[in-house]
Amino acid sequence: MNNRLKRIFSWSFLSVSIVLIILFLYVSNRLVRQLESEERAKIELWAEAYQKIIMADANADMSIELKIIEGNTTIPVFLTTPEGKLIDSNNIVIPADTAGFIAAKIKTLTASDNFFEINIADDWKQYLYYDESVLLRELHYYPYIQLLVILVFAFLFYYMIVSRKQYEQNQVWVGLSKETAHQLGTPIQSLMGWINYIESVECDVPKEQLHDIVVEIDKDVKRLHNVADRFSKIGSEPQLTPSDIGETIAEVVAYMQKRVSQHIEISAQLPATPVIRPLCRPLFAWVIENLCKNAVDAMTDGKGRTIHITLFAGSRANGRAVVEVADTGRGIPNNKLKTIFEPGYTTKQRGWGLGLTLAKRIIEQYHHGIIEVKSSTLGKGTVFRIEI
User: Fold this and answer.
1) CA–CA separation, 130 vs 135, rounded Å?
2) How far apart are CA 297 and CA 328, in angstroms?
3) How far apart are CA 341 and CA 372, in angstroms?
4) How far apart are the first and last CA of the chain?
5) Which end of the chain is more exposed for a tag (fewer CB within 10 A), N or C?
6) CA distance 293 to 307
7) Using CA atoms, how far apart are residues 359 and 372, in angstroms rounded to an integer?
């Protein structure tokens, strides 16, 4: 998963979390309001039933009213005189300090309008107070519990993302150090080889041969300069200038061919006319070299070990140039195709696992192109495709 997809996923997760929190709070508050209305309606009906029972004749049928009174098994209620003296209660525990408890409850329930005035006669009134049921009280806290659970999951997700990012950063730093050694190793070994050769030959080496040696040494010295230049460009936005892609590929092929096994053939098929595109040549050359080196490492002993680079100019309607790097190596398993560009991926015992990650960054972030595996067959080889 590249950085852009990670950002999209992170923002999507955050947006969904916020929407869910708002939705949960809205639904929960709506349920609370509905239950409050239902409980008030039940207590209002309870107050009417109580009033009818108090004012009814001795022979009146009050069975329905009694069922209403007895049907309240969840809502705490109590009746008082106008002076606040307790008359009766239901579903509520009255402590020993009855007067103090009732006075405090009356003050609280009056402020929330949780009471009814029952007119029994002109000079005879009672007050019915009711409190929230256990279910309603729990519903008040339910949204906050939901919010806490969501925040816990969000924190765990954030911690997972940060941990993974830290792991990837560590992989990148380790990979960079090994990549530096790997990049410097080729020209250094080549220079040591030329030095050993010069020391082993006699002083009367033909001038033409010495000239060829000096040319190759000069190439390795320039290579060391290019390595330093490449790493300096990785941390900043490189400047792209119109350059011939074919010329850059030809230079890489010429340099690599003399520095790989003589049993491996590196060739290139390039158009007759220049293919000019905005390039950072040192970095683009690095990508081609990395693909070639990976191909060399994937080669097994035997004949037919080839790396072939093909350049197509504007093969698609969008006019992009296409570079294909094909090898006859061991291929990539299907289950690894989605992870080969991630830091740390390697099939080598002493691998650094950063070459393809850097190649992807150079092509997609710096050159706004595409790099992908076009095809890969186990035991036959792999074809990488670059559009730029």
Assistant:
1) 14
2) 11
3) 9
4) 21
5) N
6) 10
7) 10
Could you give the CA distance from residue 299 to residue 306 in angstroms, rounded to a whole number?
A: 9
Give the C-alpha separation, 378 to 328, whole Å: 10
Per DSSP, the three-state class of 39 is helix
Longest dimension (CA), the chain: 141
- Tens-digit pLDDT string for the chain (388 aa): 455 666 777 778 778 878 877 887 788 888 888 999 999 999 999 999 998 888 888 788 888 989 998 899 999 999 999 999 999 999 999 998 899 999 999 999 999 999 999 988 777 899 999 999 988 888 888 777 877 887 887 788 777 777 776 666 656 655 665 566 566 666 666 776 766 666 566 555 666 666 777 777 777 777 676 666 666 666 567 789 999 999 999 999 998 888 788 889 999 999 999 999 999 998 899 899 989 988 888 886 656 689 999 999 875 446 789 999 999 988 988 888 888 887 665 655 444 456 788 899 889 988 999 999 999 999 889 999 999 9
Distance CA 311, CA 323 (A): 5
Q: Which residue has the tokens 């923002």?
A: 11
What amino acid occupies position 166? Q
| Cβ atoms 263, 229 nearer than 8 A | no
Please write down the long-range contacts of 31-35, taking CB distance under 8 Å and 24 or more positions apart. 31/139, 32/136, 32/139, 32/140, 35/133, 35/135, 35/136, 35/139
- Residue 387, Cβ neighbours under 10 Å: how many? 18
**The two structure tokens encoding residue 338:** 């989605």
Q: What is the rounded distance in angstroms from the CA atom of residue 177 to the CA atom of residue 352?
A: 9
- Amino acid in position 248: T
Structure pTM? 0.49
Among 291, 327, 285, 279, which residue's Cα sits nearest to residue 307?
327
Comparing CA positions, the residue from 42, 265, 30 lying closest to residue 140 is 30
- Please identify which residue in the block is written with the tokens 């080969």: 340
d(CA 325, CA 288): 8
